[in-house]
Please model this.
Amino acid sequence: VKSIYRLTGNFPENEKFGLVSQMRRAAVSIPSNIAEGQARRTTPDFVRFISIAEGSLAELDTQITISVELEYCQKNTSNELFSMIDELRRMLNALRRTLLNKSQ
Model:
């Protein structure tokens, strides 16, 4: 979330209500859905919210690609962000597997 806020702080002003807003919303949605899922206290709900977080992660991945293509983001910065996204994807998959194995 912090990396996305820092990155989008340098985007053109005319993107404030476009790409900046979308990227920040997607980034905040990831940990928010994980927290909400955990707070529901049932495994099926938690797994469902993990899936929602993964959807937001996919959105963010696409939005970073767009920002690179529009030259709002440098390649080295995007590579760092894509690495973080890959790591988060693996972590969410592992969390889902653990929850599903635990509930069986």
Observations:
- Helices lie at 2-8, 19-40, 43-69, 75-103.
- The chain has a mean pLDDT of 95.
- The chain is about 80% helix and 0% strand.
